[in-house]
Amino acid sequence: QSVLTQPPSVSGAPGQRVTISCTGSSSNTGAGYDVHWYQQLPGTAPKLLIYGNNNRPSGVPDRFSGSKSGTSASLAITGLQAEDEADYYCQSYAGSLSGWVFGGGTKLTVL
Amino acid sequence: QLQLQESGPGLVKPSETLSLTCTVSGGSISSSYYWGWIRQPPGEGLEWIANIYHSGNTYYNPSLRSRVTISVDTSKKQFSLNLTSVTAADTAIYYCASTVGSYYAYWGRGTLVTVSS
Range with the lowest mean pLDDT among A54-58, B53-57, B66-70? Predict the structure, then answer.
């Protein structure tokens, strides 16, 4: 059971927009801690996709965007492409005793 | 660009201790990063294990705290993970990574550790 809750799977056709939700609690995301997102392509290590709720590292296309409100956050992907098919994880912080926390991951299928 | 590389045995016997090392290159291990370990059982999601600051402050996943030790050797530019009394449930890909703030900006490629007799 992951601390942050994500849907197990989402899907969309090429060119469409999909969103992935990430829900935490008052101990983590609701305490004001930022949410970050990672993309994990098959057989590879996770890669930072969004940091600080809505910031993209250099090289990440602007088709990817993030938002956060209260205890929940969302990752949006517009203009869906075949290469976006991957697992996506959200991550936050839950204080010095509980540390860093992840969502269970969402598998994105491009139809 | 910071680079991290995991090393250690790929097979560990049940009840023994899993020991992994992460070697850091392309930057200083004494810089303002947290150095950490994250694991991923086959077909499952990511689980944070532990972080250490270059000063030596440590942070552990409460569910693993009793079995985990993380340490840093700044002279060798390495940090390490020890996980005791392993079972099959500890079979996973183990990633070392470093944080900028609260997010993991840099990741190693990961190393598969199988617990089996």
Answer: B53-57
